[in-house]
């Protein structure tokens, strides 16, 4: 009798736990992170732009939380994306600077990554878009056979990417480690040291280009689709993308992933190529913004966000999906092509009120658009909390009840309450990375390390934040970093130097 009772209790217990588990699983939200490429703080109408309208991202912001002090870790792509996926400051590791298109994978395969965390929590995980974190174990690789390790080996169950940037060869898609439309009879070869094969280059044949490259910026090697690229490639003619179509292909693949995984919790990392160079929008967007192709590419990006939101509605999962929209680093106008980004700017301010831009340790380098929508959970508001993309790992770990080994994601902070709008308090300190130097933000204060780099990057006409002297700014009184207060507050400088050293040596 007693034995029967115990069995009944045990069975009931299992049943209840199972039911609770199912309920929890059913309630777990899908998560989509949309990461734009080189989109600045001031590039969206919801962040104050008046010369361009971005209604779809604006709607996202109106329905969710719009952050005004949110950052990537770095003012360029590779390190910024490294941090987002690993929860670790990229400058702790050698070789996390902007990678060539044939680089080896730099994300460790034996540590917790953002997609691995979701996978551990029972999610389907997918990556669609720009990668730029290397592929395979070595620079020399066979593009005509499966390439490993890559996104799938660091936690993405599905991946559809291009390897580096739109302006670097190889200009091809890779799906789950295999080049799409590869042809054994026309093997792909890639080289970053010397010309390979017989394809014309922009330098030799500028008359073949539909968009001229800017002098001295290196975008004059192999011509693909009438555009000179960084690096040389040959072969793979059927596999090469056309720039006008490539973002649409990413959008289709992202929608397909959503569609196929709508019945289970999924994590989708959708990494747009807009408005990175070469800006060559689809025909339907060419000329639409009046700001040249950079503006058109932003309209195209905004449209893609709207399409994703529509798909979520259509599949009936919009209510249970967290959508995050952000960018990998600050804005740049002439980044290698004569595409009228400068001449047709028309008073638009991609950097908002902030100083600098891409490549800069001034605020516009890493202070970026950052929006979180979670219907019914993240209340509608504007938040000035200091947050970073590096905090996704610890914060989603908290949301999904996943522990992260101490050795992993060491710089990621659990900011779930800030991400959900329960508090407007975020980080106490954040390190920002320009190209040559680090900066530390602590409350209203910002300190930029002295360094010998040029104060102006002439190629892109951006103030880098470099100075041989220490710089100290009061971001509350002087958000545009015009007034260096270092000489006035030597004790503050000293304290911030020490604080930065402590983080560096952690
Ligand atoms: C720079 C390129 C720039 C762009 C950038 C990467 C030159 C002179 N400039 O080195 O055109 O490709 O790398 O951009 O080569 S990022 O957004 O991926 O960091
Ligand atoms: Ca970028």
Question: How would you describe the overall organization of this protein?
Answer:
With 506 residues, this protein is α/β, with parallel strands linked by helices. The protein has 2 domains: 30-179 and 241-422, Alkaline Phosphatase, subunit A (3-Layer(aba) Sandwich), CATH 3.40.720; 430-505, Arylsulfatase, C-terminal domain. The protein is built from 9 helices and 22 strands. It has helices spanning 2-27, 55-62, 77-86, 114-120, 246-260, 292-314, 392-399, 416-419, 490-504; strands at residues 30-36, 65-67, 70-71, 124-130, 158-162, 174-175, 178-179, 189-191, 223-224, 227-228, 232-234, 266-271, 321-327, 370-373, 381-383, 387-388, 429-433, 438-442, 445-448, 456-457, 462-463, 471-474. The chain has a 10-stranded mixed sheet, sandwiched between helices. A hairpin with a 2-residue loop joins strand 18 and strand 19 (445-448). The chain is globular. Mean pLDDT is 95; it is low at 18-25. Bound molecules: 2-acetamido-2-deoxy-6-O-sulfo-beta-D-galactopyranose (NG6) and calcium ion. Calcium ion is lined by residues 37-38, 77, 276, 328-329. It comes from Niabella soli DSM 19437. Keywords: Hydrolase, Signal. Residues 29-400 form the Sulfatase N-terminal domain. One of its GO terms (molecular function) is hydrolase activity. Belongs to the sulfatase family.
């Amino acid at each position: 009798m007693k034995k029967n009772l115990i069995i009944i209790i045990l069975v009931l217990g299992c049943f209840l736990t199972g039911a609770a588990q199912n309920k929890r699983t059913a309630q777990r939200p899908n998560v989509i992170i949309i990461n734009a490429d080189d989109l600045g703080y001031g590039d969206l109408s919801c962040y104050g732009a008046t010369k361009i309208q971005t209604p779809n991202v604006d709607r996202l912001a109106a329905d969710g939380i719009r952050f005004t002090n949110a950052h990537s870790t770095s003012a360029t792509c590779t390190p910024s994306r490294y941090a987002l996926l690993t929860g670790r400051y990229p400058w702790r590791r050698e070789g996390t600077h902007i990678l060539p298109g044939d680089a080896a994978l730099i994300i460790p395969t034996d540590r917790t990554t953002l997609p691995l965390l979701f996978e551990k929590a029972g999610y389907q995980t997918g990556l669609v878009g720009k990668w730029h974190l290397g592929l395979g174990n070595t620079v020399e690789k066979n593009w005509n056979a499966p390439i490993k390790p890559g996104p799938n080996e660091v936690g993405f169950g599905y991946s559809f990417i291009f390897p580096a940037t739109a302006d670097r060869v190889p200009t091809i898609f890779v799906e789950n480690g295999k080049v799409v439309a590869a042809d054994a009879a026309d093997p792909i070869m890639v080289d970053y040291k010397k010309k390979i094969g017989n394809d014309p280059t922009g330098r030799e044949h500028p008359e073949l280009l539909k968009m001229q490259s800017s002098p001295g910026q290196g975008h004059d090697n192999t011509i693909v689709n009438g555009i000179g690229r960084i690096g040389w490639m040959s072969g793979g003619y059927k596999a090469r993308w056309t720039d006008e179509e490539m973002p649409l292909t990413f959008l289709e693949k992202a929608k397909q992933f959503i569609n196929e995984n709508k019945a289970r919790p999924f994590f989708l990392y959708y990494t747009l190529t807009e408005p990175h160079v070469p800006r060559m929008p689809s025909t339907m967007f060419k000329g639409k913004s009046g700001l040249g192709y950079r503006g058109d590419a932003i309209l195209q990006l905004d449209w893609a966000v709207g399409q994703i939101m529509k798909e979520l509605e259509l599949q009936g999962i919009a209510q249970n999906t967290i959508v995050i929209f952000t960018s990998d680093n600050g804005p740049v106008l002439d980044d290698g092509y004569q595409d009228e980004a400068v001449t047709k700017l028309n008073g638009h301010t991609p950097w908002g009120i902030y100083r600098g831009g891409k490549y800069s340790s001034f605020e516009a380098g890493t202070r970026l658009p950052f929006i979180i929508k979670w219907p019914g959970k993240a209340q509608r508001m504007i938040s000035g909390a200091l947050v970073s993309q590096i905090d996704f790992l610890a914060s989603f770990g908290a949301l999904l009840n996943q522990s992260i080994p101490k050795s992993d994601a060491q710089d990621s902070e659990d900011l779930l309450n800030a991400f959900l709008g329960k508090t407007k308090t975020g980080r106490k300190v954040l390190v920002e990375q320009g190209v040559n130097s680090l900066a530390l933000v602590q409350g209203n204060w910002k300190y930029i390390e002295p360094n010998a780099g040029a104060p102006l990057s002439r190629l892109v006409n951006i103030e880098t934040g470099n100075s041989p002297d220490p710089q100290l700014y009061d971001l509350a009184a002087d958000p545009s970093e015009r007034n260096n207060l270092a000489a006035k507050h030597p004790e503050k400088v000293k304290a911030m130097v020490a604080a930065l050293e402590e983080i560096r040596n952690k």
